[in-house]
Structures are given as structure tokens and as C-alpha cells.
Amino acid sequence: MCGGRGTRLDTAVEKPLFRVGGVPMVDRVLGALDDSRVETAYAVTSPAAPETRAHLDAPCIETPGEGYVADLEAALADERLSLPVLTVAADLPLLDGAILDRVFDAHDGGSLSVLVPAARKRELGVSDDTTFERDGREVAPTGLNVVGESGDDAWLTDDVRVAVNVNTLADARVAEELS
């Protein structure tokens, strides 16, 4: 998923092209996908990120740019995809193939949300704008999910590779320190 506006990042460059460790975040995510058991990767773009689309060497699915959920639904309707589908936000610059393979290992057939304790995000000093209660714990979504035919399973981890989403310049500084 690399078609968002990235307004909170407050930078002139499109969010997926923002560099962490000298490498655009979208390239870091695509590298992690290449190093995992993922067979085929599609970049989900929108009119909000034309430079990102031009930059990409991967096949793209163009969405209307109406927000994450609407764009995800549009992408999932693409005839090239069949469930289950691993979805990955382009703002996870610390991902690597090993953590993606751990998600596959945790996946049990239906949908799977990868979550981190909100306290872990705070401990790392990264934004946690969206949190909710699950099984008595305050958790945050990571931007990494498996969309399946049914189910609402979750995998809770405190792994830094999925805990750091770059939404702000402060988040980017943390990602730089950890990369």
C-alpha cells in the first residue's frame, strides 16, 4: 500500500519515497517482500502518489485515492489477486523477509491482523495515533495484515520491525536510529 498522501510526515517528497537510511521506504518494503516467501508483489498506488508510481519497477494496482480502507477494497477487487493476500504499508522501513515469514507462520487460513502493544510504540518513541483494546490490552495496528475469506485473528508482537511506522518526522528519526 503506497498511495497515501502522507500529510502527517510534513515533507515535500511523497511518503513512500521518503528515505530512511538513504533508501526510499517503498524500496525497503519491496526488498523485504523479495526476501520473504511472497511469490508476487503488487504496489497499490493512487493519484495522490504519482512520483511513487513512476519510481516503481513492480507491477501496480491503481486505486482512486479515497483513503486506506477504500483503496484496500479497490485493490482486493483486482482480478489478479486471490485471497489470502498479505497487505503491507509502505511506511514500515524496518521490515525484512524474516518477519514477513513469521507472519505467514502465524497465519492460520483466515484474516490476520498484526498488532503491537501500544506501550511498545511509546517505549520506542513513535506515534501511536490509532489504538484499541484487544483481549484486555491496548494495541496498535502495524500496517501489516493478511486478508482472508473470513475470520478476525490477531498476532501480537513487540518486534521493532513492525512497531515502527513512519508517519511523522520524529518517527523517521527513530527509524533512522534503528535501521
TrEMBL record:
Keywords: Transferase. Pfam families: NTP_transf_3 (PF12804). One of its GO terms (molecular function) is transferase activity. Residues 2-122 form the MobA-like NTP transferase domain. SUPFAM superfamilies: Nucleotide-diphospho-sugar transferases (SSF53448). InterPro entries: MobA-like_NTP_Trfase, Nucleotide-diphossugar_trans. This is NTP transferase domain-containing protein. It comes from Haloarcula onubensis. The lineage of its organism: Archaea, Methanobacteriati, Methanobacteriota, Stenosarchaea group, Halobacteria.
